[in-house]
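@here heads up, posting the sequence + SMILES for the manganese (II) ion run so it's all in one place. Ping me if the SMILES looks off, I pulled it from an old spreadsheet.
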Amino acid sequence: MPALRDEHDDPVADLVRPAAEVERALANVVGLPFDTTTLGRRGSRFGPGANRAALATCLCYDANFDVDLADAPRVADHGDVDVIQTRIDETWDRVSEVVAVLAGDDAPLVVLGGDHGLTFPVLRGLARTVAGPIGVISIDAHHDVRVSQHGEVSAGVPFRYAMERLDGYVAGRNVVQLGIGGWHNSGVYRRYLRDAGASVVSARELHRDGVDAHVARALELAGDGTTGIWLSIDIDAVDAAHAPGTGTPAVAGLTGHQLLEIAWAFGRHPKALGIDVMEVAPEHDLGGMTAHLAASALLTFLAARHDAAA
Ligand SMILES: [Mn+2]
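bot reply: prediction finished. Complex structure tokens:
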């Protein structure tokens, strides 16, 4: 419940409902409470719960964009995928299965992570249901195109796997990374992306130029020749001052404002398939501010979808 109740307030708790109660959904939501592939600080398996708790403190009216979700169709929450913390392959299989079912709906899909490695089985699930190819925009401080370590997967691999293991479903030229920065990347992965034809925009470029033109260009590239676009948000793209509650907090990362502008622009695009918000780790958070930012980004995406449909 929101802290303040007023007879004119419409709580998000009335908007996001158990899936069994929803007939025509504005969006489908599913949680992935799994963080076993995290290389650094764990804790994002508690992300879905923290995101839902943050959503429940919000109201339906978006004062930034003047959109009221109280008039929108309900959002169907399908709960969490039944993950196994000690079995990565089996968990990833389950994630792909569930995503394949939910993505078959006309409504966009919202995924609450969970570690960023899960974005690969999410995209693999899309590949089973949504005709491709699709574009992918990644908001992340990190490239996430690592080579498997000692033959094992990690949260640092999803976009390499998406480009190499889905039979061309995600082509490099349709991959755009926004917000790369900090001293936690390797030049070899930047060169790998360049060779694959992917586009990389650093946090520095976003700060110096503003986000609008870069996001418009990202949508153009991701939408070029594709049937849809997936937006993957690793909350660690946002500066540690705005999003401390994550495994690898960013130095000089994006602002909360910039993240919301990206979510809005994406949600208004006709090819937007859905969005994942990953790496919210509440035990590292301060007063729930990271989960609240993640929830605000999701609501802004939903507001944009609703506004675009109106
Ligand atoms: Mn990441």
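MO: The pocket of manganese (II) ion is lined by residues 116, 140, 142, 144, 234 (CB under 6 Å).
MO: One more: The chain has nine helices and eleven strands.
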